[in-house]
Every structure is written in structure tokens, then in C-alpha cells.
User: Fold this.
Amino acid sequence: MPVLKLNWGKGADTIVNNGHTIQLNFAEGSSLMLGNVKYKLLQVHFHRPSEHMIGGKNFPMEAHFVHRSEAGGLAVVGVLMAEGKPNPAFGKIVKTMPAAEGPAVKADAGIDPRAMLPQRLGYFHYPGSLTTPPCSEVVEWLLLTDPIQVASADVAAFAKLYPMNARPVQKDNRRYVLRST
Assistant:
């Protein structure tokens, strides 16, 4: 499987509470290369609890970095979030997330999406669906094998807004889940 080549900028453009989750939108310029296909980074949003499990274990939260190719295909990099030491980037998101649904506002310039990645970018890859309606089967899923740590207080703050905003874990439905080295 190809190595993930993430070329993300250092900041988000806007942050929004869209009534389903907290989402950061990105300006042009950040991308993911998967093999010979280039995907533009559009946004990251969060789910509580995680929508994926590893070895039967779920996690308190999961981040989904959504990318789109020129042809319209989607690739989502999923990052599992475990409680532990604080993650400064996620901490800034929690401190600045809008408490109520409303229009997007300018995001804190200090939020670096790259700081929400683990050291190693090993991943599970499978073809799947969007996790929100219409749940279309159009996504190249790239779930990172290593979780990041975030402060339990930050998970609790997110949970005050969205105690449960995750799709239940789905069966593999005869999909092949591949693992990078």
C-alpha cells in the first residue's frame, strides 16, 4: 500500500458548530497524495465515541479529515483519540468551539491540523461509506493505526455539546481491510 503523503498547511480557516459536530474548514493548499491521486483537504470534524474499533476496542473520540479529489472522490483520514496527555491543537479547538449551532467563524490561527496526527502514519485502508446520511459508498477510508492522546477534560467539554454523535460501528460487509506496514 502507498505511503500517506500529507501536505497540510499550519492552520484552519473557519470553525463551525453545524448542529451535528464541531468542524474546522481549510483554505486551499492542503492536500493528501494517495498513490498517484491528489486529494484536497476540505475539513476535519469530530465524533464521540469513535466510529471505528481496533481489536474490538473503541475510543472516546475520533477525528475525520475529509479530502476530495478533482474527480470528486473522497478520502477520509481517521484519527482515533484516546484520553491521556493534552493535545495542544485539540485543546485550542475545544477552547474556541462555538457552544451553539450557527454560522462559521474565523478559527484560531494557532490550530495546526498536523499536531492532531500520531508520529507514525501506518493505516488501515478499505472502501466504505460516509458515516452521515445518505451514507453513500464513496469513501476511501484511511484509519490511522496509532491513536493520539487528548486531555480527558477536552473530551468532557466536547461531550457537553455532543455526548453521542457517532454512527454505530458497522460490520465489514465482505470488505477487505488492508493494513500498511
The mean pLDDT is 93. DSSP finds two helices and twelve strands in the chain. Residues 87 and 150 are 5 Å apart (CA to CA). The domain at 5-179 is CATH 3.10.200.10 (Carbonic Anhydrase II).
